[in-house]
Specification:
The protein contains 4 helices and no strands. Helix 1 runs antiparallel to helix 2, helix 1 (18-49) crosses helix 3 (64-91) and helix 3 (64-91) runs antiparallel to helix 4. The chain has 123 residues and is mostly helical.
Length: 123
């Protein structure tokens, strides 16, 4: 009888680290942006269709649930953009030391919340 093959260590074995969490968040924010872009396209179609079509869409966006969706989209957009710049810096071989990776990670998280808050306060 053959010996069962050992399982590779997985999420149950490793403690989550900033780098792994941010990688997962980057992928999730990309999925949010893909879905949200469809909503933006529908919003533009409603805008082009005239007031009779656009007004209900605008009302839905003013609803607290609609505001939460728009806020989530803007948060994902800012995070994905800033983290994308971080990845571009790595492609240029800048900031690859472990200490720098964590510093840039915390910087991206902090700037994400600051930029998103500034965006929402300005609008």
């Amino acid at each position: 009888m053959a010996k069962p093959r050992p399982l590779s260590p997985h999420l149950q074995v490793y403690r989550p680290q900033l780098t792994s969490i941010m990688s997962i968040m980057h992928r999730a924010s990309g999925a949010v942006l893909a879905t949200g872009s469809l909503l933006v396209a529908l919003w533009l179609v409603a805008l082009a269709a005239g007031a009779a079509v656009f007004n209900p869409v605008a009302d839905a966006m003013q609803h607290p649930l609609g505001q939460l969706v728009v806020f989530g989209y803007s948060l994902a957009l800012v995070y994905h953009g800033l983290n994308g710049i971080r990845h571009l810096m790595w492609d240029l071989r800048i900031g690859l030391e472990i200490k720098q990776v964590y510093q840039s990670g915390y910087l991206v998280l902090g700037l994400t919340f600051l930029v998103t808050a500034a965006l929402w306060l300005a609008v």
